[in-house]
């Protein structure tokens, strides 16, 4: 196992989270091969290996070959090859459901808006229905800061009860509107059936396991640094984002699932607030010995397929009040991500 990945997993299970609630339980994870799903899955396997919790894991995904051999060989992992937009039937008990299946790439959202909104609406309904039928002890929906939309002028922070503007007639809103509808489903199942549903709204999350070819700006920057290329900005880079390292985010997700009382929480590292330009500058500075530069090449008419939001920082005050605290700065987190990528490349060439 990649050293950086293993260190992250060890740090997560060292958190003061009531892991004992999972002992002897069955946990379904959808999107089990995605970045978030992969971390959520491996946290459970390491809890089994190091603490003997005997958790049974149902890993749901559309293509089983995306899971590493070490996972496919495990007796505590049952691979369920299935599309969440189809009715889900799983024999036996399911005590917890983690719904992480959703496209996250702007390229997919642009080219496949129907599939994107379906995963978040139909997929959420199907997983909620399963959780209700199984009398699940907990359900976690992975939402996004994009549900908040564009903030009002001068609005710096988004709290769990404040919202901005989303244009539902823009096809790019397939992601944000799908997430919003899914959140409403969660509270409906909670209100009508008493399902212990939780919603986690993630800020921009990055780290080991993310694709450097998915079209997101942080992925493009990582790809540049990884290949020793200058970073080329297609805008002035004034848009503000908050970036949260995957290890910190997953610790927050499990804290919400197992150790929270309310339904909805933001997960975002306010200290990770940077402009796109600042992020590019941080990235080229990670390896100063490479002599990489930041270059501007702004096309006429702007860019297509990107989220139209320029402000709006997630406040994690509510999550911090129940014990969550991010550990990695933007520079440290991206440095770890690059270390992970380079270790992986070295393993491929062995």
Report on this model:
It is a single chain. By secondary structure, this protein is an alpha/beta fold. Helix content is 39%, strand content 17%. The chain has 11 helices and 14 strands. The strands form 4 sheets. Strands 3-2-1-4-5-7-11 form a 7-stranded parallel β-sheet, with helices on both faces. The longest helix has 21 residues, at 113-133. It is globular, with a radius of gyration of 20 Å.
Amino-to-carboxy terminus distance? 15 Å
Class derived from helix and strand content: alpha/beta
Strand order of the largest sheet: 3-2-1-4-5-7-11
Largest sheet: 7 strands, parallel
**Tally of strands:** 14
Strand content: 15-25%
Average pLDDT over all residues:
92
- What's the shape? globular
Helix amount, in percent?
25-40%
pLDDT < 50 stretches: none
Secondary-structure element pattern, one letter each:
HEHEHEEHHEEHEEHEEHEEHEEHH
How would you describe this structure in keywords?
single chain, 350 residues, alpha/beta, seven-stranded parallel β-sheet, three-stranded mixed β-sheet, 11 helices, 39% helix, globular
Protein topology:
Blueprint: H1 3-13, E1 26-30, H2 35-51, E2 56-61, H3 69-72, E3 77-81, E4 96-99, H4 106-111, H5 113-133, E5 138-144, E6 157-158, H6 174-193, E7 197-202, E8 204-206, H7 217-226, E9 231-233, E10 240-245, H8 246-259, E11 264-267, E12 273-275, H9 276-286, E13 294-296, E14 313-314, H10 317-320, H11 330-348
Parallel strand pairs: 1-2, 1-4, 2-3, 4-5, 5-7, 6-14, 7-11, 8-10, 9-13
Antiparallel strand pairs: 10-12
Helix pairs in contact: 1-2, 1-8, 2-8, 5-6, 7-9, 9-11
């Amino acid at each position: 196992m990649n050293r950086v990945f293993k260190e992250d997993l060890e740090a997560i299970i060292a958190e003061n989270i009531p892991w004992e609630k999972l002992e002897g339980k069955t946990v379904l994870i959808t999107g089990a091969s995605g970045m978030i799903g992969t971390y959520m899955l491996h946290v459970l396997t390491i809890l089994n290996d190091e603490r003997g919790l005997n958790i049974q894991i149902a890993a749901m995904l559309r293509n089983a070959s995306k899971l590493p051999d070490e996972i496919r060989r495990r007796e505590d992992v049952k691979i369920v090859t299935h599309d969440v937009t189809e009715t889900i039937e799983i024999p036996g008990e399911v005590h917890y459901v983690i719904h992480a299946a959703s496209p996250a790439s702007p390229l997919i959202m642009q080219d496949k808006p129907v599939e994107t909104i379906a995963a978040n609406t139909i997929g959420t309904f199907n997983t909620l229905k399963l959780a209700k039928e199984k009398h699940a002890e907990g359900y976690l929906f992975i939402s996004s800061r994009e549900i908040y939309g564009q903030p009002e002028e001068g609005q710096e922070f988004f709290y769990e009860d404040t919202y901005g503007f989303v244009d539902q007639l823009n096809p790019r809103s397939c992601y944000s509107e799908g997430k919003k509808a899914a959140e409403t489903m969660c509270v409906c199942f909670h209100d009508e059936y008493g399902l212990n549903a939780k919603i986690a709204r993630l800020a921009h999350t990055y780290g080991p396991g993310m694709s450097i070819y998915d079209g997101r700006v942080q992925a493009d920057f990582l790809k540049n640094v990884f290949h020793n290329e200058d970073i080329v900005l297609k805008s002035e880079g004034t848009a503000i984002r908050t970036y949260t390292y995957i290890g910190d985010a997953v610790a927050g997700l499990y804290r919400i699932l197992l150790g929270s009382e309310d339904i909805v929480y933001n997960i975002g590292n306010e200290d990770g607030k940077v402009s796109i330009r600042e992020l590019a500058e941080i990235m080229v500075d990670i390896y100063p010995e490479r002599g990489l530069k930041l270059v501007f090449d702004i096309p006429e008419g702007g860019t297509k397929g990107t989220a139209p939001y320029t402000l709006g920082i997630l406040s994690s005050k509510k999550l911090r009040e129940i014990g969550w605290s991010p550990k990695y700065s933007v520079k440290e987190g991206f440095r770890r991500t690059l270390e992970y990528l380079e270790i992986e490349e070295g393993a491929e060439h062995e």
